Amino acid sequence: MSLPDRLRGVLSPVLTPFNPDLTPSADGLVRHCRALVEQGVGLAVFGTNSEAASMTVAEKRALLDALLAAELPPDRMMPGTGACAIGDAIELTRHAVRAGCAGVLVLPPFYYKGVSDEGLFRAYAQLIEGVADDRLRVYLYHIPPVSGVPITLGLIERLLKAYPGQVAGAKDSSGDWDNTAAMVREFAAGGFDVFPGSEVFLLPGLRAGAVGCITATANVNAGEIMQLYRQWQTPQADALHDRVRRIRGIFQALPMISAMKEAVAWQSGDTAWRAVRPPLVELKESQAAELRRQLTEADYRMPMAETLAYAKG
Amino acid sequence: MSLPDRLRGVLSPVLTPFNPDLTPSADGLVRHCRALVEQGVGLAVFGTNSEAASMTVAEKRALLDALLAAELPPDRMMPGTGACAIGDAIELTRHAVRAGCAGVLVLPPFYYKGVSDEGLFRAYAQLIEGVADDRLRVYLYHIPPVSGVPITLGLIERLLKAYPGQVAGAKDSSGDWDNTAAMVREFAAGGFDVFPGSEVFLLPGLRAGAVGCITATANVNAGEIMQLYRQWQTPQADALHDRVRRIRGIFQALPMISAMKEAVAWQSGDTAWRAVRPPLVELKESQAAELRRQLTEADYRMPMAETLAYAKG
């Protein structure tokens, strides 16, 4: 089995649609993934914005199997597989690697806070050695505002030295450009692929040597973000950058996951898309109305929205 | 099946011993639980200090089964069953309830931060309705320094109103006495049992109307903490309080879980007790030496330590 090409470009932590009883909708996820792939967006399924932490390992395995059965391309997939219990992380990572996924995005164990780099090194080492598969490509997931457990530059250096073949890159969702720039400066030349966690850093990232971005709002603004990615070296780049920033700002002012689901519900005409799992809650109607108003004012339109309805008649 | 009496007194989030390959040692856990029960300490297995977050649901189910097979008393058990994915929480909670455990200690879903009381209410409601068993007794676990997700007084009020039979109490590990006092003041009269998360608050807690405490250091100082609990209304209480505070202070100045395991290893003569799962690390030898020095200076001795060795010859 040959290895897929390294992932690059724009990936989306794919929103997970739920049925009215809050079970995941495999059909809805397949539809959404198809639309994203068709627009050129890679599939970082089971990310923070996928409500992955709210799903069991068994649910995530079943969803991944459904995507593969629907012939979505594993070489464009970077499922999130990190967990507090390394046993859970190993199980889902192994499943992803055997399915041919090009990479996995791995949160550190995130319950205990203030842990040492030595402890986090051991956690990643135990995962890599537990999976024990040369095809494994690990992307380290740095998202301290949510996880509370940062991935330091020193940790990356140690992991790269110990597992140069497996440690492939990182997603930096710190929102701290200086940190993203430091990751690129220190490690990109050695083949460590850095993805900023927002399209706001896509243009500066590409200019600095990042390979793309993994961004939640690609769920709802794939077309414009891909246009920026494809034209980043043209004179239009800065205007495209301003445009995607504007749309992101509208979503970011609200609870993002619920706001994105609201937008898909509105654009697809399928209100089932509003469902989120606890501890998240859907937008209040006043928030939803304000979201629609601002998006309308910004001439927003979601491409392929009509293909996303999974529950309505 | 009649209901066990309400839990009260001193409970310990029981340390989980691991084998050299980091699998849990059921034999070691049984030995430790036996020693705790013999001293009068209840079993809050699978707590923060049990490294419960670092174990899979299957591992925790198997350990609970081993404790029951060893005839440890379920009416003295309050296993931790909270999880980010409600499906995992339901599975382990149902297992505990069917085993006859007197209660379960339930963390809120702890990945997403800044979530609303409405979202947390739904998470607990989904757990309670998913388990659907009248014997279920839920203790809410408030530990914001670790979980990052507080259990507010407003949330407790809503849950008590919706599920008066199932919502039995709380463990308050905020370290904020004012919050513990407020929980007692607002809800204890209605049968809501408050356990401060440290023996430092045992005496003031009992004086205010709390029913005991759930404290990590009961793993290593059960005798003295139980003595304080039994004699809290005697003239010796304040001196006993000062004594347990002193011992706790020694452990608390170090990474607590690793320090407690080091103390058990030292006192039992079984170095296997040192093992922790990533992302935790065992104490450095210099820290361990300082711990032993301070405990020796404090005339510390762990009761029943000789029964705890599980791995040595």
UniProtKB/TrEMBL annotation, chains A, B:
Keywords: Lyase
Recorded GO MF terms: 4-hydroxy-tetrahydrodipicolinate synthase activity
One Pfam family linked to the record: DHDPS
Catalytic-site annotation from UniProt: Y141 (proton donor/acceptor), K171 (schiff-base intermediate with substrate)
Residues engaged in binding pyruvate: I214
Family matches, as PANTHER family: BLR3884 PROTEIN, DIHYDRODIPICOLINATE SYNTHASE
Similarity comment: family membership: Belongs to the DapA family.
Descriptive protein name: Dihydrodipicolinate synthase family protein
